[in-house]
Design a protein that fits this description.
- α3 packs across α4 and α6 (about 190-200) crosses α9 (about 255-265).
- The chain has 11 helices and 8 strands.
- The N and C termini lie far apart (about 75 Å).
- A hairpin with a 5-residue loop joins β1 and β2.
- Helices cover about 35% and strands about 15% of the residues.
- By secondary structure, the chain is of the alpha/beta class.
């Protein structure tokens, strides 16, 4: 009886420890006691959450083209598309970036989904009164916000650019051998994090914070995730602007990074490859910009998406990496192609 009691106690203790290990801490809400301060303008969404934003370019009142930018993984509204003031004024470009839910100074969304991202963008556009139609740029992980807009609010779009966009290995339309082969090209830390985010999201916090095995948290800045061009761009960026305090994750990694992985690599309510052309009369355009040397997003999957959706203009940069947006001249090409319909001067994959 004594041994059985001891075993029972140990089992209860282990269960309790395991339960605690998978429970993320509460977020440090901006503006709450002990939380980070609110330093940027914010709007209040229909569900009561606050969304932080930043405006650049020409004033929206005189802008010809109004563009909303959804940032990538571990980033924020402060990620700047390198557009010169001269180009912004020449074309009349207004850029509106925002902290996606849980990032920067935007409140977390415990119900965050691919769908909710589109309506956050729509609310932002309506409250700032930028008009009935606007452009959307989704960068890397922020591309699921842009895909969501194409699915849920296509009538509000003037054009869309997906830059080195996320691909979910479990989209149903991918041939099994293609997605498996692409998945295996990723470094093992990515593979584990993506697999857990998809199949066992309730365990992701535990996996990302444990210290026994290498997880995604160990590879920030890992050389294996950057191409030659990416490393050159990073060196220039660090030389021009030394790192500052990281505000993107200040409310906690769970509501920013972990939930991003769970949504981006989770089960979507739609398959992007089933989408219809939102601009059947060429009144707008959709673009994918991908680097052949990108070590984060497999180029083979991006090519497959572009073939399944021929109404998307696919641009593949032979030397481009995951940071191609920061390469000389690329952002100008992206903006001109998006708002003017100009053909890129960059060699495209055919």
């Amino acid at each position: 009886m004594f041994v059985q009691a001891v075993v029972l106690v140990l089992v209860v203790v282990l269960i309790g420890w395991g339960y605690q290990a998978i429970q993320p801490p509460p977020p440090k809400l901006c503006g709450s006691p002990g939380g980070p301060p609110v330093t940027s303008p914010r709007i209040r969404l229909r569900d009561g959450r606050y969304l932080s934003y930043k405006e650049r370019g020409v004033p929206k009142e005189i802008a010809t083209y109004k563009i909303i930018v959804a940032h990538g993984f571990a980033d924020s509204k402060d990620y700047l598309i390198p557009v010169s003031r001269e180009l912004a004024e020449e074309l009349g470009i207004y850029l509106l970036s925002f902290d996606r839910a849980g990032y920067g100074e935007s409140d977390p969304n415990p119900k965050r989904s691919v769908k909710s991202e589109a309506f956050d963008i729509q609310d932002l556009a309506d409250q700032l009164e930028i008009g009935s139609k606007f452009y959307v740029i989704g960068i890397s992980m922020g591309a699921y916000s842009a895909w969501s807009c194409l699915k849920h609010i296509p009538h509000r779009l003037a054009g869309v650019a997906l830059i080195v966009p996320l691909v979910n290995y479990w989209w149903p339309s991918f041939p099994a051998n293609l997605s498996k082969d692409a998945f295996r090209t990723q470094i093992v830390q990515y593979q584990w994090a993506f697999w857990i985010a998809h199949y066992a999201p309730s365990l992701l916090y535990c996996w990302m914070t444990q210290k026994w095995f290498p997880s995604l948290r160990f590879i920030v800045g890992h050389p294996g995730t950057f191409s030659r061009q990416d490393r050159e761009i990073l060196q220039k960026m660090l030389a021009a602007e030394p790192p500052t305090q990281d505000k993107a994750r200040q409310q906690g990694d769970y509501e920013s990074l972990h939930r991003d992985l769970m949504v981006g690599f989770g089960k979507w309510s739609f398959d992007p490859m089933d989408l219809n052309n939102p601009f059947p009369h060429n009144e707008g355009s959709v673009h994918i910009w991908q680097g052949y040397e990108d070590k984060v997003i497999p180029v083979a999957l991006q090519r497959y998406v572009s073939k399944r959706l021929p109404w998307i203009q696919y641009h593949e940069l032979p030397d481009g990496g995951h940071l191609l947006l920061k390469a000389d001249g690329v952002s100008d090409n992206i903006l001109r192609a998006l708002v003017l319909g100009e053909k890129s001067s960059i060699t495209d994959f055919t």
